[in-house]
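Batch manifest, entry 17 of 40.
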Amino acid sequence: MVVLCVAAATTFWVLNALNKDNYSTIVDYPVQWEYDQKNYIPVKPLPNNIQIQISGNGWDLLRKYFNISGTAYPILLQSPAEKNYLLTTDLKRGLGEFITPTQLENILGDTIHYQIDRIVTKTLRPVLDSLSYSFDKNIALEGKVNFIPDQLEITGPSSVLEAFEGKYPVALNATKIKADFSGKVPLEIEERLAQLVQLKQKEIQISFSVLSYLEGNKRLKIKKINFPSNVKLTNEELIPVLNYLIEEANLPQLKDLEFEAILDYRKRNRADSTLQIEISPNPKFLKEVRISPPQIKLRYE
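Output type: structure tokens
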């Protein structure tokens, strides 16, 4: 019986209190953005509500606080791409009239940030995504990669399309390629962009040729240049080895070449008394040229 009395008294007090005026509270008030959705698109989700401080009758504030039968306040953007913010002072008069009989005391924060871009269509050049494929050992690309079509049409927010810098990365999704390639590949859109951009083409034809290289090595004769008489090599018996890759078709050109390991004292590292080995000649048809060891330690007598 005592519990019922307390409950009844509490209920009566609450109802009586809610009938009074001049209460004040902060609420998240829903907003609805209105703009030309045919020609513009938000790059980031638009705010669904704004925080406002209101005052008035207890019942009205309770309804506003819990958004009971609340209608979102429309924010009209005539030219949404011209700027990326809205001053809350520009909303006060309209919002104040919209929420009557509740009184608008303040809008928390002085700026509402957004990003809405104009929808544009651009033509991009397809390029292979370098992280989406790999070649087998001693295999390299010969010439250029061919695409059909050689241009892709993409539609989306202007700032997003500008970030592509005129090129669209195509994922090949192939590893250890060892032979010429020709085939159709589906065009993929990054998950984070899937809701923003659209590609006209769904697939693309890719073809390219590869080269197979042979491994080779040669022992090098050391040639010293500009060496003072008191400077020697830590290991005078050292024989550097040249390692390289070469196309089989270029093997005849290799026969007549005599390679030397050039040590130019003037190019020494004074800090640690080491000298980088240079190869001469260094023909362009040799690939992945390596010298072992790459440098030699000097000693002074």
